[in-house]
Amino acid sequence: MIFITSCNTPVTNNDIMQIDGVISGLRKGSLFLKKYQDSILVTIDSFSIKGNGKFNFYTKLNQPEIFHLYLKKDDGDSLNDRIIFFGSKGKIKIETRLKTFESSARIEGSENNDLLEEYKSIGRKFNSKSLELFKLYLEAQKNQKIELIDSFQKQIDNLNRRRYLYTLNFANTHSDKMISPYIIITEMANANPSYLDTIGKKMPDIIKNSKYGKSFYKILERNKKINLN
Known about the structure:
This protein is α+β, with helices and mostly antiparallel strands. The protein is built from six helices and nine strands; from the N terminus they run βββββββββαααααα. Strands 1-4-3-6-7 form a five-stranded antiparallel beta sheet. Strands 5-2-8-9 form a four-stranded mixed beta sheet, covered by helices on one side. Strand 3 and strand 4 (40-50) form a beta hairpin. Helix 4 packs antiparallel against helix 6 (211-228). The longest helix has 32 residues, at 111-142. 24% of the residues are buried.
């Protein structure tokens, strides 16, 4: 017989996020749903799996925000046992595998998470190119090839500018989504206030008054003061 236990009780109203998922290959373990509250990552729910790897959570949610799904296995190995995703009201579906818990995760039902994955995908390409250029730069330094050193340095600087502009443009393009302030506060906290001001003016009130929106405006005001000095 298969037993799956949870401390959750299904609730039906418009402010509920329902997470249904499965972890292929997992027969026994514990899942912890966490999020940041006052800068502290806290557990808001848990689920014990005994049998077929299926799980579900029901939690009240006022606005889209980032959640962390931690897996505690009986083998004691905690490597890559965390999935970070953008939660939202309604049904969220998560499918993954035991051995590749984080990298195999497929998440459906959250528009902000779809945008986050799109952003991260381009970010990985920037990271790959940056690593490639940095290796070439170090090799040129080792061989004392001045012209190549200068050339690779210019390419690195140009790549950094492109990434900077890409992030700002992404946040500006999706200023009506919660992903916009989230990306700024996690990736571009030191951005030029004039760029941030342009993004902020396009945000609807529901985004401006959100948790991430308020943090965004704190960053904007701080950067304005720094810029004046």
